[in-house]
Input
Amino acid sequence: MAESPHDARNDLTWLRGSSVLVTGARISGLAVVQPLLALGAVVTVTDSNRAALDEASNSGAAVVLQDDLLVDPAALAAFSLVVTSPGFRPDSPVLAAATEQGIPVWGDVELSWHVDRAEVYGPRTRWLVVTGTNGKTTTTSMLASILDAAGIASVACGNIGLPIADALRGTPHPSVLAVELSSFQLFWAPSVRPAAGVVLNIAEDHLDWHGGMDGYVQAKARALSGDVAVVGLDDSRAASLAAGSPAATVVGFRLGEPASGELGVRAGMLVDDAFGANVEFLAAEDVEPSGPSGILDALAAGALARSIGVEADAVRVGLQTYRVGPHRAAVVRELGGVTFIDDSKATNPHAARSSISAHDRVVWIAGGLLKGAVIDDLVVEIADRLVAAVVLGRDGMQIAEALARHAPDVPVVRLPSGDDAGVTHGAEDADAVMRAVVAHAAELAAPGDTVLLAPAAASLDMFADYGHRGRSFAESVQRLEATDIGSSRS
Output
């Protein structure tokens, strides 16, 4: 990534009159247009989707179709800066061309960091950064609840849905940001130095984007480059990042008894032995969502809050009042003694493992885009909990084959049947497939079982996003009748 001679400056006045290219006409890209215009930049937005550009034309920026821009790569020479949406890979044509010409490339998070440091919208905020393969949104939401309980003007933003640039422009101006960051966002944000950052865990995910595990881990490690670094000690990859962090203070959290400098569980209570001595928050059994992953997320959120001086009482109240969001192990319905749970957010094997491990008898709904992740280890670990499985999506066959190898006695249904690799389904087709998936899962279930949507894969081969997939599941479940339960077993 090309470095800008202006990276170290806090005023950003060099942008006045400069031409800036924004790649991506969706939420992240459009969020940076107004700050750039406010700084006096001349902004152009590019995207490969003409309809998205039509919407972007109302933002006050010029627009150009990406294919038209690439006809003459020399046209990029007019730009002093490229600001990219996080999904663009470094080898994408427009970014590769910009880099070859020595034009600096910033992510939307990188730009937001500089805008905040330059106090464009008010005094600098303190960033509390959350990353990890799984649990980011839950931890960020818990942290936001704690900050609210503490009476701190704060906003949850970043990968959780609200762009950081929009959060900075909000009223009242926040003093603290609870920032969820993906590996993509961190890759494109090398300057970010948070007040505190946590790496919850690291498992195989987005390996195709990062070119392998090393690149993925390096991106995650950027969350630990600020004043306080927090790592999940029960995850070997996350724990290993502690030694390389430049942070002045490094603390860890674990499910077990905490040592000095750690948070953990002692005598059934969440305890802080890092920012205090045996400071109790609340009983582990009172954490929502229940189970090991919920407790770890609560400890991580508590650690970040405590790192900026939040009192233990506010941590307790914030965790007590937090409620699980949709598509994150949410109970949809109980019918005929069977519980139907939507964990569409379990978009990789690591997340699916945590979800399935919370139940004894599972009819597993899985499939989608594995993004290079290996599924066999997961199947080996969860095989004894599986009653049956229904798989769908482009990589459903890989999951079905892993089940055949490691859980040959588990009945498996694959939908759509046949070789659908590479097929992109419309919303109507995807919803029809989900209705069939849920019907088969209900047939395979018996009283006491859990029908669990924990796909272990991304959704974009069939659905608009994981939320669409979860809603489709929930709507399909609501169509069921009690007579649908266990019909294949009768």
Q: What stands out?
A: The longest helix spans residues 427-444. Residues 369 and 458 are 5 Å apart (CA to CA). Residues 1-9, 418-425 have pLDDT under 50 and may be disordered.
